[in-house]
Amino acid sequence: MLFNLLAPLGGDIVGLGLFRFLTFRTGGAVITAMALSFLLGPALIRWLRSKQANGQPIRADGPARHLVEKRGTPTMGGILILLSFGIATLLWADLRNAYVWAALIVTLGFGFVGFLDDYLKVTRASHKGVPGKIKLSVEILIAVVATLWIVSEMRGPLSLALAVPFFKDVLIQLGWFFIPFAVVVMVGASNAVNLTDGLDGLATVPVLIAASSYALIAYLAGNAIFANYLQINYVSGAGELAVFCGALVGAGLGFLWFNAPPAMVFMGDTGSLSMGGALGAVSVITKHELVLLVIGGLFVLETVSVVVQVLSFRLTGRRVFRMAPLHHHYEQKGWKEPTIVIRFWIIAVILALIGLSTLKLR
Fold first, then answer.
1. Angle made by CA atoms 57, 66, 75, in degrees to the nearest 5
2. Which runs of consecutive H residues, i.e. helices, occur in the chain?
3. What is the domain extent for residue 45?
């Protein structure tokens, strides 16, 4: 909004020309979202506590210490993320950019699905919320709408193609099979972050790391000069997603202030589904879907641990891990929560650096 209102006046009023620069507006989005989180957080947490007498329902089949240490902590803190992120994005992004709106549809749509899931869990005092098939169906529908919009806006050879990391000229034309592929990326990323969100701050920081990485990728992919130098695919208009990712980073940092151990509030599905969906949408638009497997590798590991655990138990009756997802396995081995969280953060940083290296290794 500020870009659309003030950038055209940059030639007449000193200082307003700054609003033309993506880097300035990305920084503004980070600071705005973070400030809004700090400002709105205490009041929102008090309101959530007043509405959730017993806090987030704790699974009886989870780690035993959670029944004691995490009982009574309110959930649905993702509302704070979505509010601060949404306002910051609308303030600082170019509202004429279709990619921003497509990414917002995925983020807010998935957030709404998560909100309904959290609401049912709290009101029923049960860990069972929206039935899985219904939740997945709505997510797929939202992702299909967003993908069709992205494809129609992008057009050309890139629109239905899959770019392969490390190879500068390799584009796999998937045709209309690209649509289900993109849907899998968005829905998969969303639910992978959701599975990772099991300890205080565990999912938040890796999402911030991934969002920061994709802010850089979006900036470079949306700049013809940098894209040509790095020999990555140039996506006209994708640079505006740097502002989108910046707002996500700022909102996540503000939320982390209240989510740091011991957490005052949990993000719930409201936050995890929306943040994961945002990463998936940005990866599709910037044509770096496969790189998300590396940058978001921690989320992949957590998801794979669940899949392996389920398949092993159904086929052999034995469990590979003491408990899944993977972070619970280390809890059961006696690792302290801060140890698990910080070590997983370190893994996320390493994977992000590896993922970013693909920008130059061509």
1. 40
2. 2-6, 22-51, 66-69, 78-92, 98-124, 132-154, 178-196, 204-221, 224-230, 241-259, 268-285, 289-295, 297-316, 326-332, 337-357
3. 2-357
Q: How many domains does the chain divide into?
A: 1
Instruction: Output the six-digit token pair for 12.
Output: 């007449």
Q: Which residues contact 21 (CB under 8 A, 6 or more apart)?
A: none
Residue 59 pLDDT grade (very low, low, confident, very high; cuts 50, 70, 90) = low
The 3-state secondary structure of 280-324, one letter per residue: HHHHHHCCCHHHHHHHCHHHHHHHHHHHHHHHHHHHHCCCCCCCC
- Write the pLDDT tens digit of every residue in 214-271: 999 999 999 999 999 999 999 999 999 999 999 999 999 999 999 988 889 999 999 9
**Residue 161 within a domain:** yes
275 Cβ contact list (under 8 Å, min separation 6): 78, 81, 107, 193, 203, 207, 211, 248, 252, 267
First CA to last CA distance, the chain: 37
Specify if 136 maps to a domain: yes
Identify whether the C-beta of residue 278 lies closer than 8 Å to the C-beta of residue 103: yes
Task: Report how far residue 182's alpha carbon sits from residue 174's, in angstroms, rounded to the nearest whole number.
Answer: 11
Run of H or E including 173: strand 171-173
* Within-domain flag for 213: yes
Structure tokens at 297: 């590798």
Whether 10 has a pLDDT exceeding 70, the answer reads no
pLDDT bin (cut points 50, 70, 90) of residue 52 is confident
Question: Residue 161 is inside which H or E element, if any?
Answer: strand 161-163
In a domain, 150, yes or no: yes
Q: Residue 125: its pLDDT value, please? A: 75
Q: Which amino acid is at 187?
A: V
